[in-house]
Amino acid sequence: MDPMFSDPVEEEEGSSLDLKVLVLYGLFRSKTWVLFLTGLGLVGGLVVGASMPNEYQSEARLRYVPGERDKLTDDDLAGIENVDRRGAAPGITDEIMLLENPLIYQRVAAEVGPAKILDIPDPAEMDTDSTALPARVMHALQSYLLKLRKKTIVEDSPKAKTAAWQKLRASTQLLTVRNAATIRVLVRSYSPERAQELCGALVQAFQERHREVFSAEARLEDQRKKVAEAREAYQKAESEWNDYRSTCGVFDYEAERERNEAALQSIDEKLELHKTEMLKLKASIHRYQEHIATLEPLIDVYVEPVIGPNPEYQRLSEQRADLLAEKTLLVEGSLSTRQVELRREEIEKQLEKLQKVLDETPPVNTIIPARTERRTNEEYTQTQAQLLALQAELDGVIAEIDRLEESRKAKGEERERIAECKDSHFMHRTETENAKKDLEYQQEQLAKLEKLAIAEMKGASALKPYWEPTLPLTKSGPSRLGPLLAGIALGLALGMLLAILRQLLDSHLRYPETLERAFGLRVIGVVPESRRLRNLPKEQDQDAA
Amino acid sequence: MTPQRPNFGASAPLQQAIEGIQPLAETIWSNLALLSQGRQHTRILFTSTEERAGTTLVAAATAFGLARNTRSDVTVVEANLARPALSAYLGTKATPGLSDLLVGQAHLDDCLHLVPGCLSLAAMPGGTSREVIAGEFAAPGARDMLETVATRTPFVIFDGPPLLTHPETRDLLQHVDGVVLVLRARTSKKSSARQVIERIEEAGVEVVGSVLNRFKRDAPFGSTT
């Protein structure tokens, strides 16, 4: 059969759940329940809010001024080098994290006792004649509710202690003040006096904790051990290095390497010079050899006659000289004047005769007459001698070159030996230097700690009270709006859930939308509920006209 | 009785009922009137998922609307033999009717009663109230008769009993072009509606629409058509 309508209602896939029907219609349909449950939630919220005891907050402030001791981080004291953090003081945030340690709260809770932290005082007991009536009513309600839920606190029970410190921690806030090195300590409790007392106890505990953590005295012994260990390590490294140096024969690698390099350089320079010299000598020798090849070893030489002094003449001259001397020396003494004059006359006659003879005697005469002799060529000899000298010099140079090359070889071997030692040398040197640095560092730290330990004995601390704990005059909480709103929200949510469930679980048809959406049926008419129609008689009259 | 105004001749409450829902039935008959395009006869079955869904009232009001506004002849046949109520709504004689026709105790023309005040509307009431004999509507004689009735006028409305509890309604499906499902808000079950739709579709007949009766708004907004 052809479809009668060309545009039948198509059921959307997966859309049988109509949110409008489910939620909106459901809400209106179940409005009584929704309102009821919301009201119930409101009442519940009111009751819960009323049952919450009043809280009072005390505040104290601590000034945080970190000193040298506080700069010593655990890394520093462990000897771990951390360049980025060295010298940087722990910040105020770090300090707060330190103070949030549960141990502090456990200690304070144990000191003051669980009852002071957990026990809730009866608010009605604090009412006076001046307390407003609504407040009194509220206090009476609170008192009643508290009595209902109050449990006896057993001071020594582990459960009570745990509950106490956890409550204390939850009631404490640590805050910073902007642009100031100040920590605000805020502590809440159920009465103003307790809040102040707990705040004061916590402040003291915070100061003690800070001292414990950064105590220099506690670390001195450790630091001394570290210094001893560092010294031992350094000595060991140094000893190992010395042993190695003895083994490899290189004591100071750098110095010996430089010396070796200098020696090699010097040898090379000398070799260079000597080789140059050798070449020059060879060239000279070659020239001399060429020259000597052009010379004769023996040559004819004209010998000049040898003229020598005539011995006769010399004799006569000597005689004359004697006579003259005698003449000169003649003096009256042993001889008379006559005798002297006679001798003088004699000498002069002799001198005249000698002179005549001398004049006739040639002073020189030819001893050897001129001749030609076969003699050694001086030039040849000299050249030969020079050649020999050059040769000798060349030999010397060559010998020197050989010696230098031997020396160079030895130095080269030495250089290789030095190079072989390099890595191990450096390794040992580095280890020794590092060990030395570490030792110096640990000694430095020990010196610091010793100074700080002295300061500690004098009571120095980085955490100083700035405000004493305040006594609160008005309550700081709790906020009862929260439970109230939560109650309303919960009631409303439950009401809506109920409404939606009612719609979901309703097996009957109620809405045209359901017919269209769930069944894909076109709704061509909706007849509203009518009292008139409801009460129509259904049985027919047989003869109605 | 000559009607001054549309008067079914029924008791005042029934007349008021028809008139009361007449404006609402406008949408029903106007939708059905569209179906007649290209057809010589348009045959619609009104049925429901359970008793007292208001099927007869809606069918009567629709038939009346069609007769008055389309100026076509309309026949409304009540097939609920056990609980006939059509004559009471339309102010016609209750007998003879379909039940009498089926057992041969009346002729077809005798069973068709013109509705006072709307002469283009002929009603075949259920007739003498009785339980339907199993397979009665499927018998060859009944089928021929129903076919004759179904082609009597341009519009033929069948007011059928609930399909799930009255198997005879299924036999009527072969004589109709479409089904209007009348459902009672807050009473008719979704599962029953699903079953009815499945059975109608199994018979190869289209569900042309549905009417939600006794609808009550839960919210001051929402669809009503």
Overview of the structural elements:
The complex is a heterodimer of chains A (545) and B (225). Chain A has 18 helices and nine strands. Chain A has 545 residues and is α+β, with helices and mostly antiparallel strands. In chain A, strands 2-3-1-8 form a four-stranded antiparallel beta sheet. Chain A is elongated. Chain B is 36% helix and 20% strand. Chain B has helices at 12-34, 55-70, 86-90, 98-102, 108-111, 140-150, 168-172, 190-202, and strands at 42-48, 74-78, 113-115, 118-124, 155-159, 178-184, 206-215.
Evaluate the radius of gyration of chain B: 16 Å
Evaluate the radius of gyration of chain A.
67 Å
Structural class of chain A: alpha+beta
Into which percentage range does the β-strand content of chain B fall? 15-25%
Uncertain stretches of 5 or more adjacent residues of chain A = 1-15, 539-545
- Globular, elongated, flat, extended or rod-shaped: what is the shape of chain A? elongated
Helix content of chain B: 25-40%
Task: Name some characteristics of this structure.
heterodimer; A: 545 residues; alpha+beta; Bacterial polysaccharide co-polymerase-like; 4-stranded antiparallel sheet; two-stranded antiparallel sheet; 10% strand; elongated; disordered C terminus; B: 225 residues; alpha/beta; Rossmann fold; 36% helix
